Amino acid sequence: MAIGKKHKEAAALSSSSSPLLPADRRALLLLLLLLIVLLARPAASSDGVRYDYRAYTECKSHPEPALYNGGILRWANKVTDFRTEDDGNYSPAFVLYNMSAATVYSFSCWVKIDGPTTAHVKAKILTLANAASQCLGTALVRNDCWSFLKGGFTLNSASETSVLYFQFAIYSLQTASPNASTISIRSASLQPFSPEQWNQHREDRIQLNRKRFVNVHVADSNGSRVVGAKVAVHQITRDFPFGSAISRTILGNKLYQEWFNKRFNAAVFENELKWYATEPYPGKEDYTVADQLLQFVQANDAVARGHNIFWEDPKYTPAWVKNLTGSQLRAAVSGRIESLLSRYKGDFVHWDVSNEMLHFDFYENRLGGNATVDFFDTAKRADPLATLFLNDFNVVEVCDDLSSSADSYVSRLRQLADGGVTFEGIGLEGHFGKPNIPYVRAVLDKLGTLRLPIWLTEIDISSSFDPKTQAAYLEEVLREGFAHPSVDGIMLWTAMDTNASCYQMCLTNQNFTNLPAGDVVDKLLGEWQTKETLGTTNDRGSFNFSAFLGEYKLSVTYLNLTAEGTFSLAHSDDTKHINIRLSPSR
Fold first, then answer.
1. Which of 93, 113, 111 is nearest to 31 (CA)?
2. In the prediction, which pLDDT does 95 show?
3. How confident is the model over 185-197, as a mean pLDDT?
4. What residues contact residue 91 under an 8 Å CB cut-off, 6+ apart?
5. CA distance 326 to 44
6. Which of 167, 177, 500, 504 is 20 to 30 A off residue 67, Cα-Cα?
């Protein structure tokens, strides 16, 4: 059967043919030649469609209905199953026509497997013109219930023909043969959005979650409305924590300190709290630099994140700790928590308790599976006011790292919760190459279902890009993070070292003149604060405006009467009402 006319945007593939070759490109090219194509209806317009933030992390006995009623895959609701043979495993695949490079695509479906108890399933998109493929979403899937996969993609260039397909990856050891496995999907959806629509969704969420409507009502001493009173509102502080890493190089550097304080209300120490920095030799603790950095942060009314108590990567474990085992190691880790948290009790709003434990297991490998549970319990007792985090990389950055997929993160949280840990925060590092923004949003949607604070803790863009490209990618990541309702704070990983270099991305040069990434930060900070709002009361004696959350100074003047005060804007769906009474001074 012919594939069909080019104006068709989607077609499903099903097959009972011989297994395809394992390589993505060869498999999918052969797939197009061998498989029967079910023609799709013309795609529905995305005009007026709002982004759907719904996501699920629980496995369900029955799949939920498709988001957007299936979007341009609307036809999928009428076909019971799509399966194509791929290395002996049956998997769905979809042919997509006339895909635009300017379009943002949001994909979701429900997935179930037959075969091993648990497996990771990846959804990928292949463009046939250049045989380039990219991962667009993953799900940790079971054979006894339906799991939700959500992701998305944009294309580097327009594609006449692309294929959306699925890959199967064993997640845990099972007796079942992978060759006997099949992947089934339900409620598949692919929804296109124009860049303008995607950006409008961000602005709508910013208004809903980062701003609040205010009504200032002015009356005279008799309670009568005052029409034409001049109202001036000035923002004093920002509610949303936006900060950067700092290091010892900021100490004594007045230019650096002024540059930092002008922009940021949060800080994290790049290395100065890590165990190898505070106790390089057993019993030889030195908190001098950390103390000085904390004093600088607190003197400027910023909040500080504690990073970190333990780093599971053995490469960054103190050399002397690597040689310890059994009771000696237990005593050392207990001493580390007690020393660090007793010294800084109440000083840090967060602690990254176990850093990068989705990828490494230095302590659990030596102390047993309950080691992390013990770390959290001990830390909570030592500093009850601090919010305790896991922190890891490649959760939002890439789709191919199964160790740190959204579902892997959730699975690890639930394992530790079963051991008695009460989780309080999710740390996502955010060391990006080229960001896949719709995938970032989809991961935040999934993790947001846990109703825990999510922080983007170490945001930067790879130095493999030129400064202008770094800045463009950084802007997209920051806009996405700030707009997402589940994100509670953003930290940049842009501490300047002694040689005026940074881990991957600097915001300024050594003279503290902004680089392109610094210009992006300043532009966004300008957008994300109200600064000054001026107006006059209307015929009802009211002045209405929308302002970012934070602390404000208010001044009202009418003739020779003036009233001044302050107010706070915290998150609420309700309008903030402020009543001002103008009375002659006595």
1. 93
2. 86
3. 95
4. 83, 84, 85, 165, 166, 167, 168, 182, 183
5. 63
6. 167
Confirm if 293 and 246 have CB atoms less than 8 A apart: yes
CA gyration radius for the chain? 27
Q: Which DSSP category does 278 fall into? A: H
Looking at residues 505-524, what average pLDDT do you find? 97
- Predicted local distance difference test score (pLDDT) of residue 187: 94
The bridge status of strand 454-461 relative to strand 487-492 is: parallel
Among the four given CATH numbers 3.10.310.10, 3.30.70.20, 2.60.40.10, 3.40.50.300, the one describing domain 211-234+530-581 = 2.60.40.10
Q: At what angle do helices 195-209 and 467-483 cross, to 10 degrees?
A: 50
- At 150, the pLDDT band (50, 70, 90 cuts) reads very high
- Quote the CA–CA distance of 460 and 244 in Å, as a whole number: 10
Catalytic residue among 9, 356, 429, 480: 356
Place of tokens 């005279």: 220
Strand duo 159-170 + 118-127: pairing: antiparallel
Q: Compute the distance between CA of residue 487 and CA of residue 331 in angstroms, rounded to an integer.
A: 36
- Coil, strand or helix: which one is 70? helix
Which residue in the list 270, 279, 312, 458 is annotated as catalytic? 458
Report the pLDDT averaged over residues 110-114. 92
The structure tokens 């109440």 sit at 346
Record the pTM. Answer: 0.90
User: In this structure, which CATH number among 2.60.120.260, 2.60.40.10, 2.40.50.200, 3.20.20.300 belongs to the domain 67-193?
Assistant: 2.60.120.260
- Distance linking the first and last C-alpha atoms of the chain: 92
The answer to whether 438 touches 152, Cβ cutoff 8 Å, is: yes
Stretch (H or E) spanning 405:
none
Amino acid sitting at position 86 = D
Structural fold of domain 239-528: TIM Barrel (3.20.20)
pLDDT of residue 47: 59
**pLDDT tens track for 264-295:** 999 999 999 999 999 999 999 999 999 999 99
**What is the model's pLDDT at position 135?**
95
Three-state secondary structure readout of 328-371: HHHHHHHHHHHHHHHHCCCCCCEEEEEECCCCCCHHHHHHCCCH
CATH 3.20.20.80 in the chain is located at 239-528
Q: In which residue are the tokens 């704070």 written?
A: 489
Peptide bond into 544 cis (omega under 30): no
Provide mean pLDDT across the span 206-214: 97
Check: CB of residue 529 under 8 Å from CB of residue 242: no
For tokens 């309950």, the residue is 370
Q: Is the peptide bond before 499 cis (omega within 30 degrees of 0)?
A: no
Q: From CA 461, how far away is CA 440, in angstroms rounded?
A: 14
- As a whole-number percent, the residues of the chain with pLDDT over 90 amount to 78
At 487, is the secondary structure helix, strand, or coil?
strand
State yes or no: is 458 an active-site residue.
yes
- Is 9 catalytic? The answer is no
Q: Hey, how many other C-beta atoms are within 10 angstroms of the C-beta on 431? A: 18
pLDDT tens for 51-82 read 999 999 999 999 999 999 999 987 643 334 44
